[in-house]
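The aim of this short unit is practical: by the end, you should be able to scan a pair of folded records and say something sensible about each. We start with the first protein, listed as its amino acid sequence and then its structure tokens.
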Amino acid sequence: MILSRNGKVVLATLAVLALAVTAYSAGKAWPPAQKVMRAERFELVAADGQVRGAMWVQPDGTPRAVLYDEHGRELWAAPAQTEAATQGASAPIVNGWRRVASWSGTGPKNTEKFFVRAPWKIVWDTRPHPQFGNMNFIIHIHGDKGMPYLAANVIGADQGETIQHESGTYYLKISGSQPYTITVYEKVGAK
């Protein structure tokens, strides 16, 4: 693995390594040399379709590479995780759910992208604005696989959760001006 001076991973090296391992383990010849291979995200997938590794560039421009065990737990990552992005492997497990990311605030926001395994859920809580009272609070889930999904749309004090059934990379678009807390959890041991 080659690391640059500021700690960013050279993604091309890991991509070539992943291709070599895949080709070797499948007993196939190395594909013809290509000058450039490009994608927004690379995933290393086991024979059963389970994602065991991924590489992508985070919204702040930092490259990220992660390897997962058979239960979806993070085995290795570079660079190290940031608290808001994905806390998965280091977060405690409560009633079979592990916290992936959490946000709180009072205004509109697009969260950082996060990778999560299915099933996963969003748990949210909102209260009236201290100065302006009841206002609208909306959460949209945006992913790589199509249209946004409405997870919450309430006015005033409310709380709830919604369970999702597709693994992937997502971000949340939060609209409204009420104070809120939102936490994303993934089910531990789910396949």
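Turning to the second protein, read its sequence before its tokens, just as you did above.
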Amino acid sequence: MKFSPVDIYNKEFKKSVVGGYNIDEVEDFLDEIGIAYEKLMKEKNKLKKEKIEISQKLKNYEDLEDKLDNTLARVSETIDTRTEKARKEAQNIINQAHQKAEARIKEAEKKAQEIIEGANQEASTIINQAREEKKQVSQEMEDKHQETKEEIRNERKKLENIKETRELFELRLKNMIQNIQMILDEENSRDFEDFK
């Protein structure tokens, strides 16, 4: 049977002609019960409100976790895309450089062969120039390759930092969920004792 503090305050008993309880004592006792019951009802409503707020916070954290997962996925995809693009660009540059260098060497060797009898020194100079250009281009490609590797390392560091942030967030979320569960268990225990 459900009743409110007002029901307790307003409860009336039939008067007994002979014997029975003292009316004033009964009414005082009912007033005390009403006050105690009213406090319990307020505490219960407060706990219910806190439970709703905690549930909403938990949902917000779960939404944040989903957003972090999506962000990590996008970052990982971006890093993979950039890495593959940089690798292809570096390979194309290297291939083009080798082709140009080989073409110039062949051209120099052909010219040297044609005028070898009368212009050995000139042919040697042209060959040396072509080889120097190849060396320079190769050095430029190596520098570009090292720059690309550094960019990849930086992107990986960013991903590791994001992963560490996520692990820290998950640990905090786990602790918060455990605390919430303890509060809910305590509330359920109090509810059980209140209506026992």
